[in-house]
Each structure stands twice: as structure tokens, then as C-alpha cells.
Amino acid sequence: MLSVLEHAGVIAFLPVLIWGGLLLVPWRPWSTREQLEADPQAVRTADLSDITVLIPARNEADTIGSTLSALQAQGNGLQVVVVDDQSNDATASIAAAFPNTRVVSGQPLPEGWAGKLWALEQGKSHVRTAMTLLLDADIQLQPGLLPALLAFKRREGRNFVSLMADLRRTSFWDRLLLPVFVYYFKLLYPFALSNSRNKFVAAAAGGCVLVDTDVLHRIGAFASLRGALIDDCTLARQVKQAGYRTWVGLSRSVVSLRPYGNLASIHDMVARSAYTQLGYSVWALLAVTAIFLVAYGGPFAFMNLPTMWPWALSAWAAMTVSYLPILRYYRMSPLWALLLPISAAFYLGMTWSSAIRYWRGVRSRWKGRIYSH
């Protein structure tokens, strides 16, 4: 029989196993090696006539102008389709003022559809080009990003490429929580595995996706995933399972214009899909809770014990090191890594909040729409 002290020693070793294992696994989910940035020099000669940009927009008057202005600076021949998803602001009129831009008036949301996917489904029939760029209405592309993305797609022979947007960091809460959002996304969907031929892991960042138009038609998108709330990863999975190649990476040249700024806004962003990510499983929620408590709380719980503090210190150091590449990539101070356990506590709380919403009958809530069970 193990003594109490021996049991404690086993528990103290678990955080070392978690964080050390994370650093040592060959697919390196903490790494930022998968990245693509703009090539401003390519703008003058870029031929983008093979691409139509498809933008779902619901009450995006504050951002749609900046999004479309940035597209005008990407190259020549680019076509844009904006689906005005029942907006009650000036979204449609602002979009209509831009050249090579067609505004489609969206129809009411049918039962069983997610709003964004319904807008994309309506816009899909207006695409006549070989490739489609799925772009959120609050995403601004830096000059030369789209030519670089197109060149990468052709060079690598991919049918589907997507880039994780750089989320605005204008407040303490943004800096505390938004880089961690990207960090956790990469842990859940390791980019190296997602970019391989492994069909069990597929990820995408839905704000910016360049995909072959015929692939969308062959897999039946967007009707085939009409109710998906995590639509980007669902779409990537369908593309991979159909035998096509996908790629996802980071980019500072894909800039989110959406302001968060406070804890409430970030909470709404996370809580709308966190429990969905767990498959609405109570057991998965409890498992995640246990892992967070051991991984983040363990190093500090055992730090003052004389025989266990080396394990605790090693786990804390590995935890901190795992977060540094993301901070470096987003040009933030490494000192933010010291607050990772606090960030984790907030994310665990937001995940529970998402589950409580679901148990109360709200599957998700976004853009003034409530999706029930």
C-alpha cells in the first residue's frame, strides 16, 4: 500500500508529465512554425482573377468598410460577394459603394441552420471562379497577404488553406486572454497533425479560408454542415475526409477588427462554443476540469513541500516555456507567461458558463440570435 506521502508524490509528478510531455511530443503543438505573412511587393503584379471573396455580414457597418478597402489593395481582378444577413444597420449600403462588389440580400434564417453558414450557402451560387476566399466581415488583410496565400496554396498543392487572425489586444483583458485562445486552439488541434494527411485531426480558422470552389461543391458545403457552430473545423474535417489536402497557420497579416476590450465580450466569444467543443458531454467537462486543476494548480500546491518542490518547479517552468512562443510571435512581453494559470482559471470558468447556458436550453448565442437544442 502506498503511503499518503507516496500518493502525493505521484500526484505531484502528474503536472511534470503533462507539461513535459507537451514540450516533447514530435508535433510540437506549442510551436509557431506554421505561419504565413503578407508580401507587399506582390500587390502590383498579383493576378487574383481566379478568386471570389465571399463575406457573410450581419450588422457589420463598423468594420465592413475597412475589410473591403483592404481587399482593394490586394491585387488585380478580385471579385467580392457580400451576403447581407438580415442586417438592420448600414452594412449593405456601405458594401455596395465598393467596386467589383456584389451585395446579396440574405433571406430569413431557416430552422436548423447556423446564421453564418446560411449566409455562405446563399452566396455560394454567385461564385464563378476556381477559388473562393471565405472571409469574415471583421477581418482586414494587410497588403500582399492574398497574393502570398495564393502562391503558398499553389506551391504546396493544398485545396484548402486558412489563417488564424491576429486578435486585437487593446486592454489588459485582451492581453491576458486572447493569446491564450490561440494557444489552446493549437493544443486542441495541433497544426502539424492537421496539416498532415492524418484524417483524425483537422483544423481551420474560419475568418480567412482560401478553398477550391469545386471542392466546396463536391463535399456539399455548406448545407452538409448547416447546424455546425464550430463551422471552420467541421468544414476542414469534411475536406480532409473527402481526400483533399488542408493547411492552417498563423498570420499577423490577417487582422481582426472586432474589439473585445473587456471580460464580458471575451466571455461571450468563448462561451458560445466551448461546451460544443466538448461534444456537450458532462464527462468531458469533468475531465477537462480535473486536467486543469492538476496541470495548473498542481505545481503551486506542491511548491512548499520539501521533497516535491523540484517536481513542482519543473512543471511550472515547462508550463511557462510552452507559452513563450505564442507571446514572442505576437510581440508581447514574456512576463505574461507568469499569468498563464490565471488565464486558465478564467477559461475553465467560461467553459463551465458555456455548459450552464446549454443546460438552460441555450446551445449558443451570437449576433442577436439564440440557437437552442
Automatic annotation (TrEMBL):
Glycosyltransferase listed as a keyword: yes
Species in which this protein is naturally found:
Azotobacter bryophylli
User: What GO MF terms are annotated?
Assistant: glycosyltransferase activity
Q: What is the lineage of its organism?
A: Bacteria, Pseudomonadati, Pseudomonadota, Gammaproteobacteria, Pseudomonadales
Say yes or no: keyword Nucleus present.
Answer: no
Alphabetical UniProt keywords: Glycosyltransferase, Membrane, Transferase, Transmembrane, Transmembrane helix
Which residues span the membrane? 6-25, 278-296, 308-330, 336-359
InterPro entries from the entry? Answer: Nucleotide-diphossugar_trans
May I ask which residue range the UniProt record assigns to the signal sequence? Answer: none
Q: Any idea what this protein is called? A: Glycosyltransferase
- Primary enzyme class: transferase
Output the Pfam families linked to this UniProt entry: Glyco_tranf_2_3
Which EC numbers does the record give? 2.4.-.-
